[in-house]
């Protein structure tokens, strides 16, 4: 059984169909890069997997549990998959430690001492153990994004969904965030990441999925997809002819 099973998923906003029958299975420990033009449905797909959007048709299962559109199921699902966004969305009035503890204590009802121990461990993991008491605005963008990663990890998710998590960062801060992702990948974390970092996708991912107009247009191993794109659309996207 795959960790994430996406079967014939369709998603419409009003009369506009944005996902047009997506099939994708993600195995435990797989690191998948999702690439494609703006508007091709990449974010919508991740948001559907995380239950932030309800799907119009098809099915999504995470660790064998069907994603059904009711609050109990959605809550259970969101505990299984973590999501990190382009914007870090840290609470400015909470410390770094407070941010990483919050969903543990609120959503999971983890006792405070345990939540704090987990927060310290996860901040250690992203290289920010020493900034537990700092406030977000005292950190660089790269550090804030690493806090957001620690916050997601603190929920002990079975998979992490990353939506262009380096796109809002100044170029010199991108590498430190990618280094953390690379380490998570090496440790066996299942990762589904929308990214424009083609070199990173080539080096770190097991599989590349190219989305075009709401469909998985082409997919395969990075060495094949990048070196030998099959469709005109992917060739154009990669800038090869
Ligand atoms: P990508 O992440 O690949 O750039 P998105 O998934 O964000 O693409 O968007 C795919 C399409 O869905 C776009 O045409 C976008 O305008 C549309 N879309 C996304 N979210 C909404 C929404 N909440 N309401 C209406 N249209 C939306
Ligand atoms: Mg997007």
TrEMBL record:
Q: Cross-referenced Pfam families, in alphabetical order? A: ABC_tran
Cellular component (GO) terms are:
plasma membrane
Q: Keywords in UniProt for this one?
A: Amino-acid transport, ATP-binding, Cell membrane, Membrane, Nucleotide-binding, Transport
Q: How does it sit in the membrane?
A: Peripheral membrane protein
Can you say where in the cell this protein is located? Answer: Cell membrane
What Gene3D superfamilies does this protein's entry cite? P-loop containing nucleotide triphosphate hydrolases (3.40.50.300)
Q: Which GO terms describe its molecular function?
A: ABC-type amino acid transporter activity; ATP binding; ATP hydrolysis activity
User: Domain ABC transporter: where?
Assistant: 4-238
**Homology family:** Belongs to the ABC transporter superfamily.
- This chain belongs to the protein called Amino acid ABC transporter ATP-binding protein
Native source species: Rhizobium chutanense
